[in-house]
Amino acid sequence: MIAKLTGLLDDFGADWAVIDVGGVGYLVFCSARTLSHLGLRGDRCTVFTQQQVSETDIRLIGFASAAERDWFRLLTAIQGVGSKVALAILSALTTEELQRACAGGDSAMVARANGVGPKLATRIVNELKDRAGALPTAPGAAAVASAPAGTPGNDAVSALQNLGFKPQVAADAVARAIDELGEDAGLNDLIRVALKRAAG
């Protein structure tokens, strides 16, 4: 089974990318969040993969992190959640948000994803509630992700993304800035230090 691909981003669309590995192009289906991590055509990238085999199809699903792949596996084990719905959930929520939603029983957050109604969202949260704490999230942004919207940490991440940094790079840089400056740091100081960390 193919577990990971590292190569050049050859092409991409709304829910797929072609990764050129040594002259062989692999078609990989991805969440919108993963696609945003891959960069521009010609950029070197790595995706963690899950191979799916059905009676009519064999496809690779790609993820920006191993944590995202772990959540995909958990989600698709739930009745009524196929790969499309799982990718829609992972497009709408970060792994940290999904973990918090499941641990806290917040089915409304899960229902934000396209194609996920209230009943399915409740089933997902109920089935994953006990397992949410044991699953890893993507590295770096735990402190930032757990902060409420509108806080300096989240605003600093948004500011870095607006400057062109990828979401995970921005979150990692702000998390390091918070470690350095303390949780009471102001927005301008966070952005200044995070920019240095992201550029370095």
Describe this structure in words.
This protein is an alpha+beta fold and 200 residues long. It folds into three domains: 4-63, Nucleic acid-binding proteins (OB fold (Dihydrolipoamide Acetyltransferase, E2P)); 67-134, Orthogonal Bundle (DNA polymerase, domain 1); 142-199, Orthogonal Bundle (Helicase, Ruva Protein, domain 3), CATH 1.10.8. It is built from ten helices and five strands, in the order E-E-E-H-E-E-H-H-H-H-H-H-H-H-H. It has helices at residues 32-38, 66-76, 83-92, 95-104, 107-110, 118-128, 142-145, 152-162, 167-181, 187-199; strands spanning 4-12, 16-21, 24-30, 44-53, 58-63. The protein has a five-stranded mixed barrel. Helix 2 (66-76) crosses helix 3, helix 4 (95-104) crosses helix 6 and helix 8 crosses helix 9. It comes from Novosphingobium piscinae. Pfam families: HHH_5, RuvA_C, RuvA_N. InterPro entries: DNA_helicase_Holl-junc_RuvA_I, Hlx-hairpin-Hlx_DNA-bd_motif, NA-bd_OB-fold, RuvA, RuvA_2-like, RuvA_C, RuvA_C_sf.
Return the average pLDDT rounded to an integer: 85
Number of helices: 10
Question: Structural class, from helix and strand content?
Answer: alpha+beta
Could you name the CATH topology of the largest domain?
DNA polymerase, domain 1
First CA to last CA: what distance?
36 Å
Largest sheet: 5 strands, mixed, barrel
What's the shape?
A: flat
Q: Could you say how many structural domains there are in total?
A: 3
Radius of gyration: 18 Å
Order of helices and strands: EEEHEEHHHHHHHHH
**Mind telling me the CATH superfamily name of the largest domain?**
5' to 3' exonuclease, C-terminal subdomain
The residue fraction in helices comes out at 40-55%
Low-confidence region ranges: 139-148
